[in-house]
Amino acid sequence: MKSIGIIGGGFSGTMTAIGLMKNSTAKIQIYLFEKDNLARGLAYADIDSHLLLNVRADQMGAFPDDIGHFYQWLQDKKIECEPSDFISRKFYGDYLSELLNSAVKESAAVVKVKIIKNQVIDIDTELKKIVFETHAPVKVDELVLAMGLKSPSGFNFTDIKQSDEPITIIGTSLSMVDVVVYLKSINYQGQIIAVSRRGRTPKEHQFYDSSVSRPVYDFTKNHSLSFVFETIKNNLKIYEWRLGIDAVRPHSQFLWSHWTIRERSQFLRYLRALWDIHRHRISPVHQKILEDLKTSGQLKIKTIGFKPYTPTTKIVIKCHGPNQLNNHFLQKLIEKKIVSEDCFHLGIESNKKWIHTIGPLRRGQLWECTAVSEIRVQAKQLAIELLAAL
To answer: Which listed site, 113, 157, 207, 278, has its alpha carbon 20 to 30 Å from 262?
Structure first.
């Protein structure tokens, strides 16, 4: 019996496994290697019900051909909400867990699934074996690296429940918003200082009727960074900026893959920060929390520029963006030349035909590949490719 191993049990790994189970007609063995809770990862961990998805409910279906699937699940569970509501991430973790469990049961006659809750520490490429911290090695025919985003802070939020010590948050993007919302939910009373080079925070979502005109982009004839930038800038004079930015999203992977190294470097240096706060937006509920805390003076956003910054508070939480490459396992793979890191240190690419990557690890190749809308497509395609390779 052929076997497929998946390292990582967050959205990327879970949906790859489900795709394999739904599409396999031959008997196969699937191994899921995840030392923490399956089907949750960092994004949907059951930490606090106040943490909301950054995308409306009716757009968060786990399957690319049924994007309303999550909203229908909410209705089936009698969870009151509107299609445009931003739902607790806890519910999304519950949703993925149920999808995985259902897929395991429905495919049991054909697919065997074994979950190994242990830390992967190495890969023996000669024997195609996965090496663990305290578990016997496991041999696989195909392997998927599906490690998603890792928290840069390493900080246990529960440590500050009884404290009113001032806190410094390094970074002012989505991770900072999560921390502030959590602090608000536990009634934290201390001063919160969030700092970043430019002091920019994510923008708020708004919605428009389907009848509202939207820009249409065509970059097939000219996809240079300068042309793209000028085209978007001109459209933003005509359309509300969210409509202009959202219309670029379907083209983002095409553009990134066709830009030169120089163009990618220019984008990362001069435009990335602007793109991130306008493209990766937050719910109106979270936006109001930020504004209320800023108005009261409890939250201060500081611009520190590019000079070295030394926090003056005892408690410091790093929220300057997750870096999934900053772990011993991936660094070992890079050193052994099993995978290669891209020149911008965004992601990796496998050097072995039997080892595949999905999700955030592919940022160097695709740039936009950390959200559900992109990963659900990748997972379906990868499952089909893996089955064809067996």
So the answer is: 278
